[in-house]
Design goal:
With 398 residues, this protein is an alpha/beta fold. The protein has two domains: 11-184, Rossmann fold (3-Layer(aba) Sandwich), CATH 3.40.50; 191-397, CoaB-like (Rossmann fold, 3-Layer(aba) Sandwich), CATH 3.40.50.10300. It is built from 14 helices and 21 strands. The strands form six sheets. It has an eight-stranded mixed beta sheet, with helices on both faces. Strands 2-1-3-4-5 form a five-stranded parallel beta sheet, with helices on both faces. α1 (22-34) packs across α9. The structure holds cytidine-5'-triphosphate (CTP).
């Protein structure tokens, strides 16, 4: 143990549910301890089939809670642990445990501890691909992210029984970094939804109507939000990478983006995507042929995703983006009309701002007409300033 690690004196509850990846939780416990954290472990009964509680007890120096009753020295181990924790991390998290947490079932010591805490929660799912991709699991994950739970991974790779695919638990080092971010950053326990990239609206199986957005700004915000410990859902059409502790939903069209956004109920929504306003009203099943002559493409409106979020009963703190070409007056008017808390406007006709470049020059527009031009900066710096602004505004309303 060290007293000068990044988690010196911080109180971490490590929850372990039943899966082969339970062996990784012993490594995670060691990493947490080597950063100076105090660690207490709680295991489901199934977890003890994979890893002996004696292992975690010896590593942490404390008895491991495996049951709600009969725990030495405590009549209510779940509330003791829940109140003691500064952060709870469940690694590995099986689909059963994830689903129990999502609906509030608390019949075992682990899920009861999670329900009995006000500390931020992270889960690192580990399961077979079929189970990870099952709609029931995905619904539960969407619920958890909306509740401010950080989802770490899973990654793609070797699974139990020689299988391969998405569902592998993130490495203990990745989980450790997420825990450090949750405790150090100003956004631990805050759920943030980010849209990114330009949508593609199909004409036929080969062609689409698209735009020049690369997704760089939205991905930079997702990365910075995760670094600050937020529970991030990134709904993106871009193929840029995203960090392990970001829940990523890959989409293509405005409709897919709207559907993905509808399933998340965040504290903050940052709509950085360049969503097509119109799509072809007919998506041809077969490739259109040159021999048939120029097609007539009739367009229809796409859903206004930002508006659906602005109209919610539980409305998040809402950040819109506006890509303009010329005067920013339109953006100021848009900030008022769109029902956002703040609008980030940029003039995409400038070579050093906007699409596919690493820098951006934005003007912050408030619905009351105030504007604040920011100097040219790397998109990562603009992302950090946007999150500083959000942290300030949330601090005001909390
Ligand atoms: N947006 C959205 N859904 C759409 C269109 C836009 O969520 N179907 C979001 C964008 O992600 C952005 C904001 O709305 O945050 C403004 O996008 P913009 O295209 O500038 O707005 P429009 O309403 O299309 O404005 P206009 O066409 O008048 O410029």
């Amino acid at each position: 143990m060290t007293s000068d690690g990044r988690l010196a004196g911080r109180r971490v509850v490590l929850g372990v549910s039943g899966g082969v990846a339970a062996y990784k939780s012993a490594v995670l416990a060691r990493l947490l301890l080597s950063e100076g954290a105090e660690v207490r472990a709680v295991m489901t009964r199934a977890a003890t089939d994979f890893l002996g509680p004696a292992t975690l007890a010896a590593l942490t120096g404390h008895p491991v809670v495996t049951s709600l009753v009969g725990h030495e020295g405590s009549v209510s181990p779940h509330t003791d642990l829940g109140r003691w924790a500064e952060v709870v991390v469940v690694a590995p998290a099986t689909t059963a445990t994830i689903s129990r947490i999502a609906v509030g079932l608390s019949e075992d010591a682990l899920s009861a501890t999670v329900l009995a805490t006000r500390a931020p929660l992270a889960v690192a799912p580990a399961m077979h691909t079929e189970m990870w991709e099952h709609p029931a699991t995905q619904r539960a994950i969407a619920t958890l992210t909306g509740d401010g739970v950080t989802i770490i991974g899973p990654e793609s790779g070797a699974l139990a029984g020689g299988d391969e695919g998405p569902g592998r638990m993130s490495e203990p080092e990745t989980v450790l970094e997420a825990v450090v971010a949750m405790l150090a950053g100003g956004l631990g326990g805050t759920s943030i939804l980010i849209t990114a990239g330009g949508t593609r609206e199909a004409i036929d199986p080969v062609r689409y109507i698209g735009n020049r957005s690369s997704g760089k700004m939205g991905h930079a915000i997702a990365e910075e939000a995760a670094r600050r410990g937020a529970a991030v859902t990134l709904v993106t059409s871009s193929h840029l990478p995203s960090p392990g502790a970001v829940r990523r939903v890959q989409v293509e069209s405005a409709q897919e983006m709207a559907d993905a956004v509808a399933s998340v109920d965040p504290d903050v929504a940052i709509m950085a995507a360049a969503v097509a306003d119109f799509r072809p009203s007919t998506n041809h099943d077969a490739k259109l042929s040159r021999a048939d002559g120029p097609p007539e493409i009739v367009l229809e409106p796409t859903p206004d995703i930002l508006k659906t979020v602005a109209d919610r009963v539980r409305r998040p703190f809402l950040v819109g983006f506006a890509a303009e070409t010329g005067s920013l007056e339109r953006a100021v008017e848009k900030a008022r009309r769109k029902g956002v808390d703040v609008l980030v406007a940029n003039d995409v006709s400038q070579p050093d701002a906007g699409f596919a470049v690493d820098t951006n020059r934005v003007t912050i527009c408030w619905p009351d007409g105030r504007t604040e031009p920011w100097e040219l900066a790397q998109k990562s710096v603009v992302a950090a300033r946007i999150l500083d602004l959000i942290e300030r505004e949330l601090g005001r309303t909390r």
